[in-house]
Amino acid sequence: MRNVFVTELKQVALEEQPLEICERKGLGHPDSICDSIMNQVSIELSKEYLRRFDTILHHNLDKGLLAAGETRVRFGGGEVISPMLIVYGDRATFDVGDERVPVNEIAIRSTKEWLKSNMRFIDPDVHVTYQSEIKPGAASLQDIFERKGKFLGANDTSAAVGFAPMTETEKLILSLERHLNSPEFKKEYPESGEDIKIMGLRKGRRLELTVAMAFIDRFISSEADYFRKKGEIEEAIREFINSNYGFEEVNVGLNVLDARGRGIGGLYLTVLGTSAEGGDSGQVGRGNNVIGVIPLNRPMSSEAAAGKNPVSHVGKIYNLLSYRIADQVSKRVNGIKETYIWLLSNIGQPINEPKVVSAQVILEDGVKLKEVSAEIEETVAHEFDHLAEFCMDLALGKMTVC
């Protein structure tokens, strides 16, 4: 494969550095809801295009907004005063010849299905309103889909970067949020809402976690009950970490803004389990990277992958592919501590012909770059040889993007 540059990074691998900061915005965080919804709309629209026309047509649905509603929380259960608003933006293909594609209907239907599947207490017909600002695409970008060839041209000149392996801190933060939002945890602690954010600070082998978790007011009878249940969840978090990870010391702070003696005003209570119901709006692209964390010590792509089309939009394809290649290099090639893969597209050029692929590696002691370069290049070539299957997996929702 052409334009592959393999270089050695003369730096300390992140796992060995003295300080690391990493964050995750969980399933019910307003930004995560936006990412998940808009990507689900792209998936369902891609399926509809494939069903009708045996191909995926132009769409970019990476502009989405969740405007917070208004609620009144109470011990034992509050009320929704005004609903949340989801605004869909950007472009899609509405018409093919005389056939009309119900883009807006698909967007709203797929959103309601996602909310029903992931947010226990949001009724998408009652607690949410919908506003579509999706319009037909620009002629130049639609024309990319009319050109022949196995691969479409890139819709943009855009760069992406991915890394592997994840550090223990990154893995912990990702797995902890997924555990806290698992069906098993919700069954044991139903007062735990889906809106969970975790910030991790590692100093050497000591880890400090700040966890924000929206409690659901219908399961809380009083301030004392809130703090009792909060203590139980805090202990469950520590047990999960100690059972699965080997840090020297872990300090956990759960809902640290809480203040005893201030009643409801001093507690993190919600009616529906997300701050989007009344306190915080959300937007596509402000949340996790495509492997699910916000790794502050790492280079990150500026593109939001969620909602972009999976066959020409390199902001999605290269974003996920860079992590896929980095992961495969990490698993296949011996002698490498850490890998960073950079991909750069050139607008109009086929997506399987990037302008450059840069593989930057931190080597194990005693390993020479020439000993691993050929195998790295072979791994890159292998992944691009299977790019069509990769894009179809994206289209069918077989990969997460947040």
Give a description of the structure:
- With 402 residues, this protein is of the alpha+beta class.
- The chain contains nine helices and 18 strands.
- It has helices at residues 30-53, 103-118, 139-144, 168-180, 183-188, 223-244, 314-332, 369-385, 387-395; strands spanning 4-8, 19-25, 59-67, 70-72, 79-82, 84-92, 95-96, 99-100, 128-132, 159-164, 192-203, 206-216, 249-254, 269-270, 282-283, 294-295, 336-344, 356-363.
- Strand 7 (95-96) and strand 8 (99-100) form a beta hairpin.
- The radius of gyration is 23 Å and the shape is flat.
| CATH architectural group of the domain at 17-25 and 168-283 | 2-Layer Sandwich
Task: Work out the helicity level.
Answer: 25-40%
SSE order, as H and E?
EEHEEEEEEHEHEHHEEHEEEEHEEHH
Distance between the termini: 30 Å
Q: Please tally the helical runs, counting DSSP H or I stretches of 4 or more residues.
A: 9
CATH class of the domain at 17-25 and 168-283: Alpha Beta
